[in-house]
Amino acid sequence: MARVALVTGGVSGIGAATCKALQAAGFAVAASFVADEAAARGFREQTGIATYRWDVADFDACQQGVAEVVRTLGPVDVLVNNAGITRDASLHKMTREQWRAVIEVNLGGCFNMCHAVIGSMRERGYGRIVNLSSVNGLAGQFGQANYAATKAGIIGFTKSLALESAAHGITVNAVAPGYTDTPMVAAVRPEVRERIVAGIPLRRLGRPEEVAAAILYLVSDAAAYITGETLSINGGQYLR
Ligand code: CAA
Predict the structure, then answer these.
(1) What is the reported pTM?
(2) Whose CA, among 39, 74, 144, 147, lies 20 to 30 Å from 136?
(3) How do the residues of the chain divide into helix, strand and coil, expressed in percent and rounded to 5?
(4) Which of 90, 134, 193, 211 to mutate to test the pocket of ligand 1 (most atoms within 8 A of CB)?
């Protein structure tokens, strides 16, 4: 029986590349999305990957969404918490709503999704969880106090859940991508983006497939002894 992998925010960017990599490696893959039905339909038709619609910021919706994945594909062996948003603004201009939305989706979503799968993983004595952090959670970024707080928070969350889960055959790790060629990075002002890319030692954006390869490694049997770690994929950006 194929292992079941669930990727949140799975129909575009790093999430879509991760779904495709997992599918190619033989997993039965579920991709969740929140809003864009047309994009989800296109992704489903192109890849044959099952898509499910719910909001990771909604605790009850996560419980119900995971139950639907279990009903259609089977218990979740691998969870990739990829869904995330930005609401960039300098702190003195940031609204409470911009703060709240990013905290609830990026950090709340990680809690909600882990909560929805962890009981079953513990019962079955097996699980792989990968949470998406960011170079901006490690280094900070002008205009991203909200986003950087969530991405730094995810690292502490990951370490704590790794400690709680190790005795149950579950590993929990994070990946911290740098600036990757996705719709999220495309939304950054061109002059800001160009300045950032010029400061990356490898002088280019990352490719979603390069992040997906790291996630695939962390959920593989070869990585069974790695837990509580954060793997950076950033072209050397954090070295500067
Ligand atoms: N670095 C240094 N200085 C900056 C700056 C920056 N990134 N952005 C603005 N400034 C400067 C301006 O030049 C200006 O200076 P002067 O007053 O001397 O002219 C001053 O700060 C303006 O400050 P404001 O608070 O008014 O900033 P703003 O409203 O013009 O811009 C912002 C705010 C749009 C958020 C902008 O800072 C920005 O685009 N920041 C980068 C955001 C970013 O990289 N987001 C990443 C999204 S992708 C992602 O998050 C994925 C991932 O994990 C990597």
Answers:
(1) 0.96
(2) 39
(3) 55, 15, 30
(4) 90
